[in-house]
Design a protein that fits this description.
Elements lengths: L3 E2 L4 E4 L12 H17 L3 H15 L2 H9 L3 H8 L11 H8 L4 E5 L4 H11 L7 E3 L12 H10 L7 E5 L6 H6 L2 E5 L13 E3 L2 H7 L1 E2 L4
Parallel strand pairs: 1-8, 2-3, 2-5, 3-4, 5-6, 6-7
Helix pairs in contact: 1-2, 2-3, 5-9
């Protein structure tokens, strides 16, 4: 059945593994570059650097958080290293373009990535013109989703009315603060095992068909 989104006029989208599929392989390339950076800064062997990277990700929500807190890393230098990754694995999806175009109201990117990565990915996907603005990790003062304060920041920055907003995200835990504020939430991507948490309004394996089938207030 198609989702009833006729109450929505503001659309928030995570970027990575949401506007393009996880199986593109870009996430693996980025993860490897993060490991390279952790290894360079710490001098650890690669296996230990990867373990530290995962530990910081779990503790801080981003590896960057742990690198800033424990190694004095400059976030701009960190992101400059990551943004050298090639985007050849990404391709434009006509269905995604069509699905986004039909959404009435504002379309915003809400991402834990930085501004440069966001601009590069949107351009590669051919989606830049379809979004009104971007709220990136720098705008959040490097406090990543799912921190409630970051959701408050984007709400204030863009005058959001949660009851009229919908948030699309591939990481389940990042949906809870949005739901708690009153937003409609959509978990994107294949999810195995247990039933979805009660703070997930809808779930879909593929975003584009979901957008094309959704019931909307009006045509964009």
């Amino acid at each position: 059945m198609s989702a009833d989104l006729r109450h929505v006029d503001t659309w928030l989208f995570d970027l990575d593994n949401t506007l393009y599929p996880l199986d593109s392989g870009l996430g693996v390339l980025v993860t490897d570059r993060i490991t390279d950076y952790v290894q360079r800064v710490t001098g650890l062997p690669r296996k230990e650097a990867r373990a530290l990277q995962k530990g910081y990700l779990e503790e801080h929500g981003l590896t960057l958080g742990g690198m800033m807190a424990n190694h004095g890393v400059d976030p701009q230098e960190y992101h400059a290293h990551l943004n050298e990754v090639a985007l050849d694995v990404l391709t434009r999806d006509p269905e995604m373009l069509a699905g986004l175009r039909r959404l009435p109201g504002r379309r915003l990117i809400f991402t834990n990535a930085d501004e440069v990565h966001t601009e590069r990915v949107l351009a590669k996907l051919g989606l830049t013109a379809l979004f009104d603005d971007v709220f990136h990790i720098g705008d959040a003062d490097y406090v990543p989703k799912p921190a409630p304060e970051t959701f408050r920041r984007i709400s204030e920055a863009h005058d959001l009315f949660p009851e009229k907003s919908c948030f699309f995200e591939d990481t389940e835990r990042n949906l809870k603060p949005a739901f708690d504020l009153g937003m409609t939430t959509v978990l994107v991507g294949a999810v195995e095992g247990a039933p979805t948490a009660d703070y997930v309004t809808y779930r879909t394996d593929r975003l584009a068909p979901f957008l094309l089938a959704a019931k909307l207030k009006e045509a964009a």
